[in-house]
Write a structure and sequence with these properties.
The chain is α+β, with helices and mostly antiparallel strands. The protein is built from 26 helices and 19 strands. The radius of gyration is 32 Å and the shape is elongated.
Length: 809
């Protein structure tokens, strides 16, 4: 039973670590694989500053003349939707010509033909589409009556790909005469590195913004891991920490149970090293067993986590992410479990090697061990450490965290805060319980008195139970408060954008910034001409890469709105009126940008230098030439209402499927969309509750083995089986309630540290929100988990035979 509980305890932590690694590797593998499939045999590629439409004809002509360049392959890459009735499928749309012979069937391109004449897709996708299927583009709905099915496309993006002739892709996705990427085939008598250097020099003469990358350079684009990994990593660290504490606790209880055996072995000549190595070997075996359990559970947990990551990656890059379990993940998971188990068992095992032989064999150890020791000093020290982390996080972000060193200090402060205050909650719980004294004449409270005496007698056990419950309560409260704060921030931005207006999109209100299914000029004109419409305000978002290769987004708005805190510089509207940039705090810190610095935006002849006038928390805004609108805000005329305009839009034939909502609907759609991507984190909250269940159950069960003599004694004194059962259960209730209460109280400080670090991690100032109802709910869940976990230990205690346990008295 001890082995099973230890394996499951550590396996819970390993499972989350494995799930995080699988999510990270799956996303990276999917993106790299799609990039390699598109690149084919080409060793080099040319990209502009804008990831979409960043390379013009002049750059292509210049590159074609560079010595060593054999073939140039221009490609347009768009993330969009295939609509077939009520079903929508996110796909990767590729615009290519006949130079991309590794992607298309050579039979499609006849000699002298520049590009294929019909659309193509994979058999996997093509077989699922009906005759009415359409491809959403920036100019409307492209009918797909005849699709050539190319078998090799099944290997690109799991078959979710549609090929268009390059000229058609330029027109449909508003690239005009520009393309997204140009792949370069190198002549046989030239080296890729030499050709790369020549291309850099030749393109540099046209202006800034062009880069020449190799196959090993990562593709520019949205990286979902930058959003999910920090939050998943926190869960993994907490879960591993709980597993380590449980292994240490189980090893300690195992040592305590076998003190007499250890003393006998030592008296017969066993060395301290032999005793130490024996317990460490036992921990290593338990760690290996726990790792196997954790790896299997982690693979199961990884599926919903990867599905959430795939949803985001499809929206921004059109890439579908399947679950990929690499051998290295299994090896790391196995090694992590063994290493953590051994490290956790070192201190308890050292105490075993230092067993006092005479004390144990004389029978005095039980009395000495039951002597209660105050742990207030430990609790006070941990409180000081935790609040020191809060102070560090606050000081590191007091000026917005614009300096590079501040991000590290802020995140370090959060880690110290979480570790210190979680442990402090556990130790304080034991201290509070130790201070409770019932009146000795209260005979009707004997069961409660016995339970309190047991908890006071073994404070480490009380600490373990309280800590196991405090962890899920704190994490659930922290995440719930953070989600509430995010929802409020999103709602405030949405309200500022849509106040007094209708909001229109051609996709979903959470996808407007990423999909190549934007508003066509014709649709905008039709909306503007509808009766009762005063103005139609456009919003466009452009993905770009800076000189160092980092990703940024440029937002262009007919009516800029600023509901964000200014960190440095002047008011945002003043900067916009002066044709200066308003940039985000993360962008400023990561690229060492200050007010007054100039950024060069655009590629080649379109590049221009723009001064930074204001640093705020949202993304920068700058117009990159004509861009189709991602989102529209429809302002009604004075004599019209929002409902009238909405009905008019829904009844009009606009050539594109247009969804329209008012400010409240827009706010609800955006907040629900954000919550959808954080759904796996809610699942992990319940996973931590399961770990708490295991922790309490294992601690009480092993303690029951150690306390069999005490249980037998109260049975001999007349305690009924119900009383024995109640003692164990009440112990779990008291310890877990103390852990839940103190964990909830200290979570306020943890929430404050995390929200401060959010300034440098996600670029937003979140309000201090303590979700009282959520904290109470998860505290109740955790306490109930502890109560149910105590059932088996309580039942086991009732199986003790008093005569057997007391025969040595």
């Amino acid at each position: 039973m001890r082995a099973v509980l230890a394996a499951i305890s550590l396996g819970g932590g390993v499972a989350i670590v494995v799930a995080v690694m699988i999510e990270t590797t799956s996303v990276r593998t999917a993106i790299d694989d799609v990039g390699y499939r598109i690149a084919g045999p080409t060793p080099l590629r040319i990209v502009g500053e804008a990831t979409l439409g960043g390379i013009g004809p002049a750059a292509i002509d210049t590159a074609r003349k560079v010595p060593g360049v054999s073939v140039l392959v221009p490609v347009i890459r768009a993330a969009t939707l295939v609509r077939d009735g009520d079903r929508e499928t996110t796909v990767l749309a590729l615009g290519i010509d006949c130079s991309a012979q590794w992607i298309i069937d050579p039979k499609v391109c006849q000699p002298g033909q520049k590009e294929p004449q019909i659309l193509a897709t994979s058999p996997t996708l093509g077989k699922t589409l009906g005759s009415s299927a359409t491809l959403a583009t920036d100019v409307g709905q492209l009918s797909m009556p005849r699709l050539q099915q190319v078998p090799q496309l099944d290997t690109v993006n799991n078959g979710r790909v549609v090929l268009l002739p390059l000229s058609a892709a330029k027109a449909q996705f508003a690239r005009f005469d520009w393309v997204d990427t140009v792949y370069v085939k190198v002549a046989n008598d030239s080296s890729a590195s030499e050709v790369q250097a020549r291309l850099v020099n030749a393109l540099g003469a046209l202006g800034p913004g062009f880069r020449v990358l190799t196959r090993n350079d990562p593709a520019a684009g949205f990286d979902v891991n930058t959003i999910l990994f920090p939050m998943l990593a926190i869960f993994a660290l907490i879960a591993v920490g709980v597993g380590v504490i449980l292994i240490a606790q189980l090893t300690r209880l195992s040592v305590e149970e076998r003190r007499r055996e250890i003393a006998i072995a030592a008296a017969l000549g066993a060395s301290p090293l032999a005793v130490l190595s024996g317990f460490l070997a036992e921990a290593a075996v338990l760690g290996a067993a726990g790792s196997v359990v954790g790896i299997l559970i982690g693979i199961v947990i990884a599926h919903p986590v990867v599905a959430s990551a795939s949803d985001l990656t499809q929206r921004f890059m059109g890439v579908n992410v399947p679950v990929v379990v690499e051998t290295g993940v299994v090896v790391v998971g196995l090694g992590t479990g063994v290493l953590l188990a051994v490290l956790a068992a070192i201190i308890p095992s050292l105490s075993a090697s230092n067993t006092a032989i005479a004390t144990e064999l004389s029978g005095r150890a039980a009395h000495e061990d039951s002597t209660s020791r105050s742990i207030w000093r430990k609790a006070a020290a941990l409180l000081a450490i935790g609040f020191a982390g809060v102070i560090v996080a606050r000081l590191a972000t007091i000026s917005g965290g614009l300096e590079p060193w501040q991000a590290g200090f802020a995140n370090g402060g959060v880690v110290v805060t979480i570790a210190g205050l979680l442990l402090a909650a556990a130790y304080l719980s034991a201290q509070v319980i130790a201070s409770i004294r019932l009146r000795p004449d209260r005979t009707h409270g004997a069961t409660l008195a016995i339970a309190l005496t047991g908890l006071r007698a073994d404070e480490s056990r009380t600490t373990a139970i309280a800590g196991a419950v405090a962890v899920p309560v704190v994490v659930a409260t922290l995440l719930s408060g953070f989600l509430v704060a995010i929802d409020r921030g999103v709602a405030n931005v949405a309200q500022a954008q849509a106040d007094g207006r209708l909001v229109a999109t051609t996709t979903r209100f959470t996808d407007w910034g990423s999909m190549d299914a934007r508003f066509s000029p014709d649709t905008v004109a039709k909306l503007s001409s509808l009766p009762g419409v005063d103005t139609v305000e456009r919003l466009a978002e452009i993905e770009m890469t800076l000189r160092n290769g980092s990703l940024a987004y440029v937002r262009a708005e007919d009516r800029p709105t600023f509901s964000f805190t200014v960190l440095a510089g002047q008011a945002p509207k003043v900067s916009i009126n002066a044709n200066e940039l308003v940039i985000g705090g993360i962008l400023a810190r990561e690229n060492d940008i200050h007010v007054g610095d100039a950024l060069i935006l655009g590629s080649g002849s379109r590049a221009r230098s723009v001064v930074v006038g204001t640093i705020v928390y949202p993304l920068a805004e700058q117009i990159f030439g004509p861009q189709p609108a991602n989102l529209l805000f429809v302002k009604p005329a004075a004599e019209s209402t929002l409902d009238q305009i909405a009905a008019e839009i829904r009844s009009s034939h606009l050539g594109q499927p247009v969804k329209v909502v008012d400010a409240a609907g827009y706010r609800a759609a955006v907040t629900s969309g954000e919550s959808r991507f954080l759904a796996p984190l809610n699942t992990l909250k319940y996973g931590l509750l399961a770990i708490a269940f295991i922790s309490v159950s294992s601690t009480l069960l092993l303690l029951g083995i150690r306390q069999r003599r005490e249980i037998a004694l109260i049975q001999a004194l007349g305690a009924t089986p119900a009383k024995v059962f109640a003692v164990t259960t009440i112990e779990a209730v008291i310890a877990s309630a103390a852990g839940a209460l103190l964990g909830g109280v200290l979570s306020v400080a943890i929430i404050d540290a995390v929200r401060r670090a959010a300034v440098v991690d996600v670029g937003s100032v979140t309000p201090l929100v303590f979700p009282l109802s959520e904290a109470i709910r998860y505290a109740v869940f955790a306490i109930l988990a502890a109560v149910f976990a105590a059932v088996i230990p309580a039942w086991k205690n009732n199986q003790a035979a008093p005569s057997t346990e007391l025969r040595d008295e």
